[in-house]
Recover the amino acids of this structure.
């Protein structure tokens, strides 16, 4: 269904513009992702090749040797790109209303949340059910400690380290170590 500007709500979502998440096309995509997560998360002993095939079925890109340990949760999956050798430990969440890219050899600890979804600061727009997303880019060979939160719009440079439990609200330069709430360079 197209809106007054000629774009569907999904097109607006993917562009990072305000959109209505209750639109039927978006709800159908979320339902498909939920069905996929049931298949991905249920068999804990699934052979690596079959688990990789499931990732390839749903994600934008999956590099060689990329591993996600279940359980794993996402909004859509099709906005996620994993480089070669990426590792996500148990209980990671990626809210991927827009692009999430994770560079080669990045390691992500258990319980990490990568959140592109954002909400208007204007209460009337929030009340109308509108939201938007800001992309997240994580460079290569990054190490993100367990329980960290990566907030919308953040870019993390190559070889950076994010301390466990940190809340990353701003871009992180290459090779920096950040920790805390909010995360600061140490």
């Amino acid at each position: 269904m197209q809106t007054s500007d000629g774009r569907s709500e999904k097109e607006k979502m993917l562009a990072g513009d305000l959109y209505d998440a209750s639109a039927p096309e978006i709800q159908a995509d979320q339902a498909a992702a939920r069905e996929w997560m049931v298949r991905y998360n249920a068999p804990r002993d699934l052979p690596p090749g079959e688990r990789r095939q499931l990732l390839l079925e749903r994600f934008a890109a999956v590099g060689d040797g990329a591993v996600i340990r279940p359980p794993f949760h996402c909004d859509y999956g099709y906005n996620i790109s994993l480089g070669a050798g990426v590792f996500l430990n148990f209980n990671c969440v990626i809210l991927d209303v827009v692009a999430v890219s994770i560079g080669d050899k990045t390691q992500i600890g258990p319980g990490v949340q990568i959140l592109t979804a954002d909400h208007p600061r204007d209460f009337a727009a929030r009340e109308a059910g509108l939201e938007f997303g800001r992309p997240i880019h994580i460079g290569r060979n990054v190490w993100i400690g367990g329980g960290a939160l990566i907030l919308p719009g953040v870019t993390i440079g190559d070889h950076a380290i994010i301390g466990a439990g940190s809340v990353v609200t701003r871009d992180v330069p290459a090779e920096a170590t950040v920790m805390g709430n909010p995360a600061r360079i140490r």
